[in-house]
């Protein structure tokens, strides 16, 4: 039985046994507070950690850099260098993480994550960003290309994420760039021009997957650039959503994980218990059912490899993929600033 977010909230309000644990504060994206993902932590302590939420990676970083205190945060891979450069995090003690050796090697293949001074990042989850669409109103041929987002027929009928990383991944793919680790000025300008064109069709920039799902379920938009979780929410409500991950220009992938924040106010023992709960093989099914994401542990992922949601939303595709891996911090800041201009109509 899936322990859904609404159930968790009701139990937290109604029963002292589900009161938040004041000895561990997790700063996270909304949706990951589902106990089914880290059930062994609740089994051990009888309550979930205290959760604080953010809407995007840049918001989380700014809040922590301004002095907000938590024990761990859940950035996606391209943000880890900022946390390191700012001195906000410290290495993990992997001798306290038995499942560390089960992590798929590609998720740690960067000196930003692991170097001679230690392991700075525990990747835990990964997913795709692709085209979500209403199968009853949008022909399949229209979503065979990313130019559905600039198609005049969908003016005022599309939604993009209020996330610079995801919209630039889209724009680069749409203009023929599949690797954002070495972007030329010409590629940047071409992608920016495409984004400005797409902006003319945008009804709303969604802040989180539930907002994106609501926009589609209400009929306000027909097409969205979506993570897996927005699709899961719509499918759970019986909405006729399609998830096109193989348009001719391709789609994007990302992965996220946890950092050990310096001078966290809570219990270090409980922090490691939380991470170990996340990396337990049983976490993969809860993660897939509630968020639609894959697990970074090969042992955990093996437990769900035959699930329909894996085949639909996470399996290899015959199309280009832009992997949202760490890129140049200066280029990322440039993209962030340009995205703000585009949203403002400039």
From TrEMBL:
SUPFAM superfamilies per the UniProt record, alphabetical: Periplasmic binding protein-like II
Key words of the record: Signal
UniProt keyword Signal present: yes
Signal peptide: 1-19
PANTHER family associated with the record: SPERMIDINE/PUTRESCINE-BINDING PERIPLASMIC PROTEIN, SPERMIDINE_PUTRESCINE-BINDING PERIPLASMIC PROTEIN
Protein name: Spermidine/putrescine transport system substrate-binding protein
Organism: Paracoccus sulfuroxidans
